[in-house]
Design a protein that fits this description.
Strand content of chain A: 25-35%
Mean pLDDT of chain A: 96
Number of strands of chain B: 19
Low-confidence stretches of chain A: none
Oligomer: heterodimer
Structural class of chain B: alpha/beta
Largest sheet of chain B: 7 strands, mixed
CATH architecture of the largest domain in chain B: 3-Layer(bba) Sandwich
Helix content of chain B: 25-40%
Low-confidence stretches of chain B: none
Number of domains of chain A: 1
Largest interface: A-B, 46 and 44 residues
Helix content of chain A: 10-25%
Strand order of the largest sheet of chain A: 1-4-5-8-7-6-9
Mean pLDDT of chain B: 95
Shape of chain A: globular
Number of helices of chain B: 9
Number of strands of chain A: 9
Bound molecules: flavin-adenine dinucleotide, iron/sulfur cluster
Chain lengths: 167, 371
């Protein structure tokens, strides 16, 4: 259970997952932030105002899946590294997962990185489609990883170092 | 020679820096004494992004917030900052003594704001004096301030925010973290911190404690074991964890010596993490003109420490006659900001502690002696 080991349960995840028809339409943000803490930079990060922390700063964030276009601007802005973007329409068999990353070295575009689950288990090697730096002040990278569709809701991190070339 | 000062701030962490800036913004002249060689307090080693709202620089990294606050104070014409300046004592005649680069200064402030922060707690277990056992804050300083890789493989004791965050920063520095153990049945820190650690492969085990450390001349490992619901070790659950370093992140306790010595009414309040000076709505202690802000009056967060600092700064400047009406309004604004920060479940513990303190204060004002 999340409060005991840091791993959100299946029910936790379901409670923040967009409905299937929305996932089928393309990129969308998922805020895996389940605890009431005084925090709201995600709401400030989204210019479309798709994330709301209401009625007050202690509420958990709610993503309006109809407004969110999956741009990913919020991913690197969340201090809890709790927001991910999933795009189920990336290719025939693959989904794109955008995740925040704060380790060195950063994998290069085109390399393969080892994807990890929410409990840190290795799920396989997946191509890094993009690695965007967060800039001097923010410093959090956003990594876009192409993963098999069935792993889109499982891959939430990559293993530091040891990246491989090729597909 | 005794130097006359309008407002003296003891401690240059987020609370002290914000107190100085707030008082100076209303026109008061402030002297801030910080015992270390740079202002910033805990923030100088916090490389992670902070929570809170925009007003408390949420989303910025602690190091950047510290620099922003320090720069604002350094550049303010009404603020003088002395570093390497430890406040030693606050005396009955109003004189405050400071050790400044081996000189002994005597200062007579009209108002004093104590913002000395907190100190790490330790834990008793067999062989806890082996080299290789540190407070988590010390390891964080070695790593993030001095750029030293502090260990090869660490066992973290404590899953509060400090334990979780320092574990994550150890990973960032290329140190292996064998695990985080926590005696309580639940993770005490923010779960988003726990989750990012967990998905980097670090096990977090609640209901576990350290039974003993072992090693020949230096730490080589630890034996951990499970605790039952009565916090008793469960026989047969011992596990051996090889590690060259143990980090203790078992809590902070207010660094309130100056308030003790000044003779402030003090109270042990568990929810505020130890002995704290009892303060009123202006954060003024039982000694008129002596204020306490930040972790010293209850272990909380940098966000709250900044707002408390501002509140005390406005109150102190206002009481000296600097724009009293504006000071009152700004003070009120800060009080509302604090109330919002503390309104959720994460603030429940602090609120309970503050209620106890308020009861003690009411008793004092009503003429009854402190308990
Ligand atoms: C690992 C860790 C992670 C944290 N993460 C977060 C977070 O994510 N978000 C958050 O909001 N908060 C966080 N905090 C908490 C936050 O850092 C503290 O709550 C905050 O720094 C308290 O501010 P302060 O000004 O009261 O005390 P401090 O920051 O401790 O500053 C006190 C200052 O006073 C100085 N001092 C002490 N005694 C004297 C003396 N006698 N004379 C002169 N100077 C003196 C000290 O040198 C120090 O600079 C974290 C803390 C730690 C340790
Ligand atoms: S992905 Fe873009 S549009 Fe969607 S919530 Fe984040 S910032 Fe807003
Ligand atoms: S910024 Fe991140 S941690 Fe903070 S409320 Fe939003 S999703 Fe949660």
């Amino acid at each position: 259970m999340l409060i005991q080991d840091g791993i959100p349960t299946r029910e936790d995840i379901q409670s923040v997952t967009p409905p299937a028809h929305r996932l089928a339409q393309g990129a969308v943000a998922i805020a895996e932030c389940f605890q009431k803490i005084p925090c709201n930079p995600c709401a400030k990060a989204c210019v479309k105002k798709a994330i709301r922390v209401e009625p007050d700063i202690n509420a958990t964030p709610k993503v309006d899946f109809d407004i969110c276009n999956g741009c990913g601007a919020c991913v690197a802005r969340c201090p809890g590294l709790a927001i991910f973007v999933v795009d189920m329409t990336y290719s025939g068999g693959e989904a794109l997962v955008k995740l925040p990353f704060e380790f060195l070295p950063v994998p290069q575009e085109g390399q393969l990185a080892c994807g990890l689950s929410r409990s840190g288990e290795e799920l396989g090697w997946f191509p890094v489609v993009k690695a965007v730096s967060g800039g001097k002040r923010n410093m959090t990278c956003t990594i876009s990883l192409a993963v098999p569709k069935e792993l889109a809701m499982e891959v939430r991190n990559i293993k530091v170092g040891g990246y491989r070339d090729g597909r | 020679m005794i130097r006359e000062v309008e407002i003296l701030v003891a401690g240059g962490g987020p609370a002290g820096l914000c107190a100085a800036a707030a008082a100076a913004s209303l026109g008061a002249k402030v002297l801030l004494c910080e015992r270390s060689d740079v202002p910033g307090g805990q923030l100088v080693k916090q490389t992670h992004k902070f929570f809170g709202s925009e007003k408390q620089y949420a989303g910025d990294r602690g190091i950047h917030i510290g620099r922003t606050l320090a720069d604002a104070a350094v550049n303010h014409p009404n603020i003088e900052i002395l570093t390497d300046a430890a406040v030693l004592g606050i005396y009955e005649d109003g004189v405050v003594t400071v050790l400044y680069k081996n000189q002994h200064l005597k200062i007579r402030p009209k108002r004093t704001i104590v913002a000395t922060g907190a100190a790490e707690k330790f834990l008793a277990f067999p062989n806890n004096d082996l080299p290789g056992i540190y407070g988590a804050g010390a390891v964080q300083t070695l790593m993030n301030v001095h750029g030293v890789k502090p260990a090869e493989r660490v066992l973290m004791v404590g899953a509060g925010n400090i334990g979780l965050i320092v574990s994550y920063q150890l990973l960032q520095a290329g140190v292996e973290v064998a695990g985080v153990i926590e005696a309580a049945p639940r993770i005490g820190g923010y779960l988003v911190h726990a989750s990012k650690l967990r998905r980097a492969g670090v096990p977090i085990r609640t209901g576990y404690t350290i039974k003993e450390a072992y090693g020949n001349g230096k730490l080589e490992g630890a034996v951990i074991c499970r605790l039952d619901e009565n916090w008793k070790p469960v026989p047969g659950t011992e596990e051996d964890i090889r590690c060259d370093t143990i980090c203790l992140a078992v809590g902070l306790t207010p660094l309130a010596e100056l308030c003790w010595q000044a003779g402030c009414q003090m109270a042990f309040i568990r929810e505020l993490s130890g002995h704290v000076p009892v303060v009123d709505g202006n954060l003024e202690t039982s000694i008129p003109g002596l204020y306490a802000a930040g972790d010293i009056s209850g272990i909380e967060e940098a966000s709250a420490a900044m707002v408390e600092g501002r509140l005390a700064g406005y109150a102190a400047a206002g009481s000296l006659g600097y724009e009293p009406q504006k000071a009152g309004e700004l003070r009120q604004g800060a009080a509302e900001e604090l109330a919002e920060l503390r309104s959720g479940p994460a603030g429940a513990r602090i609120m309970a502690g503050l209620e106890k303190a308020a009861a003690l204060l009411a008793a004092r004002k009503g003429g009854a002696g402190p308990c």
